[in-house]
Design brief:
alpha/beta; TIM Barrel; 11 helices; globular
């Protein structure tokens, strides 16, 4: 089944949980799509997973669109969403429109994802939606604000911070976003937000009460050298790959291959 945006809200109404994973090239996208994931996100996490940066901040729009074009060719069924990287949309609605337009035109994105729910960002989301560009929101731990947040720390742990995140989520929904990512916040706060919104919430480190879950594919496959505490590995492909390469080297040196 080819997934469309309106199905996500329909699934929330049916209490049918949504699955989402990241992709960074043709092969990773093809794998998660064939496995039946509902939503494929070309996330700016590829800055760290694929390009070796310490944060997502150095990633450029050209870089993520390069990877998105490759990933798009591997997706046949899932909804295809592309992150907008740091400073490609924070400078106002006009800049965001150009960046989002490129994602749709050049990379085949069906939607874009933006971080933050403060007033200026809500206005930007509303402008994109009015222009016909579907938007997924993102609150809680927003990695593009890592320095302002003081690191990759859990957010919304105080009543005041939790209330602010709830208000941001409500404002993002009112601006027209079709879904929202809740990252690294307390489970009870995620439950409150999920119950307050008509649009689906997609959790990452936000507990079991969201309308869906997303993780970085490199983490679930055990490819990452480090993964956040809320992630789960379903395989250990990094060690298996190292062992395979070691065996190849040994067989060549011992003249066992070819």
């Amino acid at each position: 089944m080819v997934v469309k945006i309106h199905q996500l809200t329909h699934w929330k109404q049916q209490s049918r949980l949504i699955t989402a994973l990241t992709a960074w090239d043709y092969t990773s996208a093809q794998i998660v799509d064939q496995a039946g994931v509902d939503l494929v996100l070309v996330g700016d996490s590829l800055a760290m997973v694929t390009l070796g940066y310490d944060t997502t901040l150095p990633l450029t729009l050209d870089e993520i669109l390069h990877h998105a074009r490759a990933a798009r060719r591997g997706v046949k069924q899932a909804l295809f969403v592309v992150d907008l990287p740091f400073l490609s949309y924070q400078l106002g609605s006009e800049a965001a429109m150009r960046s989002a337009g490129r994602a749709l035109k050049e990379a085949g994105a069906q939607a874009v994802k933006l971080e933050g729910g403060y007033e200026a960002m809500v206005l930007t989301i509303a402008a994109l939606v009015q222009a016909g560009i579907p938007v997924m929101g993102h609150v809680g731990l927003t990695p593009q604000s890592v320095h302002q947040l003081g690191g990759f720390r859990r957010q919304g742990t105080s009543p005041e911070a939790g209330e602010r995140i709830l208000r941001e989520a409500i404002a993002i929904e009112k601006a027209g976003a079709f879904a929202i990512v809740l990252e690294h916040i307390p489970a009870e706060l995620a439950k409150q937000i999920s119950q307050s919104l008509a649009i689906p919430t997609i959790g990452i480190g936000a507990g079991p009460h969201c309308d869906g879950q997303v993780l970085v594919t490199a983490d679930i496959l055990g490819l990452s050298s480090w993964r956040p505490p809320f992630a789960k590995s379903y395989a250990n492909l990094r060690d298996q790959a190292v062992q395979a390469v070691q065996q190849f080297c040994q067989e060549v040196r011992e003249e066992k291959f070819p």
